[in-house]
Amino acid sequence: MFYLLAKITGLFALPGMVLLIAFVGGATLLWWPRHRRAGRVVLTAVAVVFAVIALSPVSSVATRRLEDRFPPNPPLAETVDGIIVLGGALDEMVSAARGQITLNDAAGRLIEAARLARVHREAKVLVTGGNADPLAVDGLDEARFMAQLLVDLGVERNRILIEDKSRTTWENAVFSYRMATPAPSEHWLLVTSARHMARSVGAFRKAGWSVTAWPTDFVTGGPPQWVNEDLPFRNLGLLSQSLHEWIGLVVYRLLGRSDSLFPAP
Question: What would the pLDDT profile of 157-211 be if each residue is shown by its tens digit?
């Protein structure tokens, strides 16, 4: 029940959902003669906020702060004992329905994990991710699709460990640690999207696992994409993703799932 409530609360905290609720509320007020002025104020506020999000760098700034926390391609030890890949890179329900693994904008996690696995052939590969949708059908565990894709990309099946019960980043850390039981001297890489890395590292450290961050799926850097025809909605999506992580960092610190508000290398 707590997990379902957390998902619902997170949904209604997203900027897009807040703007939608405010837009519908403002439009509704316009139909009430006594509240038309309030309706105009609400709709004007919605328009101003959306314009700021769509045309200002606020989304990129919020995302870049997260992505810059852990540098890409850090130096590695001579031997890599394992590679942990967090779920979130594919849609398991669509994949099952279409009979073809369907990736999303976090696909870099799996692509980079496959590349690392081929470079470091001594390393185990642990894929972690159950079904994060509280209303979804049982049996559609993301980790199993992840493992199949890695095998298709050339990773030997006997190297892959499958953790398919976790639904959150915290459970990713705890359940993966229990499965791998790493020795203190072992060197494991953690592969996930750059904007998600700080919260992930905090959770894994709290679970007792000192991992090396290997961030992927960067979306900031380089010149601004002012000619992008989807710029307004891209910026809204970026802000939603970054706010999800910033809120998650605060929540994880308050719940004791991280020893730091903003974990660093």
Answer: 999 999 999 999 999 999 999 999 999 999 999 999 999 999 999 999 999 999 9
Lookup: tokens for 105: 């904008």
The reply to whether CATH 3.40.50.720 applies to domain 72-217 is no
Between CA 124 and CA 188 the distance in angstroms is 9
Amino acid identity at 149? L
CA distances from 90 to 44, 146, 159, 163, 169 (A): 37, 8, 21, 16, 16
At 121, which amino acid appears? R
Q: How far apart are CA 70 and CA 213, in angstroms?
A: 7
Domain extents for the chain?
2-66+230-252, 72-217
Q: Is the whole-model pTM more than 0.85?
A: yes
- Residue 79 confidence (pLDDT) above 70: yes
Q: Are 72 and 215 in contact (CB under 8 A)?
A: yes
Instruction: Please state the φ and ψ torsions of residue 73, each to the nearest 5 degrees.
Output: 50, 55
Burial readout 70-85 (b: 16 or more C-beta within 10 A, e: otherwise)? beeeeeeeeebbbbbb
**Pair 110, 224: CB distance under 8 Å:** no
Scored b (16 or more CB within 10 A) or e, 234-258 reads bbbbbbbbbbbbbebbebbbeeebb
Q: Are 68 and 168 in contact (CB under 8 A)?
A: no
